[in-house]
């Protein structure tokens, strides 16, 4: 059972077994009483923001979202394969009454969910747990996975090759093919995997010049290299010196309610860059955003290098920095992140 207040977006989970091939999307139904039901329209609605939307077409994850749910949306929903196999049944309750007093954690969860909904057309986030088919997961664990990751744990397949394809297909789908291949191989001894995927798609609100241009980019060691550039002689952006950061900061508007902030240290030395990084605390970043929000945009000459980040962080080092030494030891022997 899922209980929400009126006006919120509701996520109803459904998954096709990982051992099955996805040849068509699942079918969703809502009970209408007297042993009757109606099929939800997930295909023909062409409006920009559908009332009911299938989040990941042609994927093992066949979850839907009901936007701006009201009391009329309450009822029993069921998800079935195209062959008629019942995959999931959910009782949805939409309440008009005011919600009870919330804990800080519950309030943060709601704010985070609202932020994700607001940015849903530019920012996609997904998580999925995969586990060895020999393991028996408790109902409590499964329910927590649905609660925190909005996804039911899925069993790994029989062979390493099948699992490698399963994982890479999932990552490609959730990142809109920005990461077509994450893993070379999934170890046969893998017991549990937690995957997190984040995909952001943003476009400049004001376009740069179409004509390609190249120029010098100074690296930290002082070397100059020729790189492709984005250039505009009178780009509309907000720029100011932010005392908290001790850096010049420029704010570039993107489509939607998104912005890109670029921080320039006093010089191109590593020491000045590290000083700016140290000052990027939560409080200072909030102050920076407020300062630039209050300032008026102006026409400025902008030259930006076109870059591509390709980073593979060392998870053991990151886990140890968080103080999770026991998990780090487990990670190096048994876990796969």
UniProtKB/TrEMBL annotation:
InterPro entries: Ig-like_dom, Ig-like_dom_sf, Ig-like_fold, Ig_V-set, Serpin_dom, Serpin_fam, Serpin_sf, Serpin_sf_1. Pfam families: Serpin, V-set. One of its GO terms (molecular function) is serine-type endopeptidase inhibitor activity. Gene3D superfamilies: Alpha-1-antitrypsin, domain 1, Antithrombin, subunit I, domain 2, Immunoglobulins. GO terms for cellular component: extracellular space. Residues 1-91 form the Ig-like domain. Belongs to the serpin family. This is Serpin peptidase inhibitor, clade G (C1 inhibitor), member 1. It comes from Nothobranchius rachovii (bluefin notho).
């Amino acid at each position: 059972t899922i209980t929400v207040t009126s006006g919120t977006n509701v996520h109803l989970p459904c998954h096709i077994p990982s051992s099955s091939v996805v040849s068509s999307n699942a079918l969703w139904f809502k009970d209408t009483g007297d042993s009757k039901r109606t099929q939800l329209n997930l295909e023909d609605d062409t409006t920009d923001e559908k009332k009911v939307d299938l989040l990941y077409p042609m994927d093992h994850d066949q979850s839907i979202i009901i936007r701006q749910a009201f009391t009329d949306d309450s009822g029993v929903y069921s998800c079935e394969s195209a062959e008629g196999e019942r995959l999931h049944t959910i009782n949805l309750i939409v309440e008009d009454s005011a919600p009870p007093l919330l804990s800080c954690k519950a309030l943060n969860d709601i704010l985070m969910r609202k932020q994700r909904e607001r940015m849903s057309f530019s920012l996609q986030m997904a998580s999925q747990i995969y586990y060895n088919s020999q393991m028996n997961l408790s109902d409590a664990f499964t329910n927590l996975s649905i609660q925190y990751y909005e996804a039911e744990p899925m069993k790994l397949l029989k062979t390493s090759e099948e699992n490698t394809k399963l994982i890479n297909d999932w990552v490609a789908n959730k990142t809109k093919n920005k990461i077509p291949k994450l893993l070379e191989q999934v170890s046969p001894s893998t017991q549990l995997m937690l995957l997190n995927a984040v995909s952001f798609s943003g476009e400049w609100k004001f376009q740069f010049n179409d004509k390609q241009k190249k120029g010098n980019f100074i690296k930290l060691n002082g070397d100059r290299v020729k790189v492709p550039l984005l250039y505009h002689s009178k780009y509309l952006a907000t720029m100011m010196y932010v005392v908290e950061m001790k850096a010049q900061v420029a704010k570039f508007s993107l489509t939607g309610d998104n912005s890109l902030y670029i921080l320039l240290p006093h010089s191109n030395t590593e020491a000045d860059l590290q000083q700016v990084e140290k000052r990027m605390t939560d409080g200072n970043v909030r102050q920076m955003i407020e300062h630039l929000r209050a300032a008026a945009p102006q026409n400025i000459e902008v030259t930006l290098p076109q870059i591509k980040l390709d980073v593979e962080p060392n998870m053991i080092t990151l886990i140890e920095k968080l103080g999770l030494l026991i998990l780090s030891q487990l990670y190096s022997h048994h876990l796969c992140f």
